[in-house]
Amino acid sequence: MEAKPERHTAGIRVVTPFRGMFAVRDQLMDELYTWLDARGLTYGPTFFRLHVVAMEADMDIEVGVVLDKPVDGDTRVIRGILPAGDYAFLKYVNHGRRANGTLIDWIRAQNLPMDVVENPAGDRFACRYEAYLTDPRSERMKTKWQIELAIRLQGQQA
């Protein structure tokens, strides 16, 4: 568990079916890098944020980067915030299907409530994201990506 301060972001947020989510993620990453590079902005690791998780319906997803200060967006790129608070983290390589369950099981075993509203229309996370510690532009093989999964805990303010 680790306390994180509020962090400024720039990202692209879309609603997409679960089945095509990862192809959309990769396209959004390329689009976001092009937007950032055209403005000469420096940024931290790329993150993939799931705002609403609904495996049998549409997912509300965002690809973004952490910035030192807020920037103006445009019609496609939005300005955002990763909220402050305590987060549970798990680092892994490649696929996160098992990582997600492992982290959630650990959080529950510690009796720590996640900051999520669970409902039939989809789970709405206050903040659940995957930070790509390996730059996807320099390592194109996804099986080698080092990723950090983070889930914000409920009622835990930094």
UniProtKB/TrEMBL annotation:
Top-level taxon: Bacteria
Taxonomic path: Bacteria, Bacillati, Actinomycetota, Actinomycetes, Micromonosporales
Entry protein name: GyrI-like domain-containing protein
Residue ranges crossing the lipid bilayer per the database entry: none
InterPro entries assigned: AraC_E-bd, GyrI-like, Reg_factor_effector_dom_sf
Domain AraC effector-binding: 1-154
Cited Gene3D superfamilies: Regulatory factor, effector binding domain (3.20.80.10)
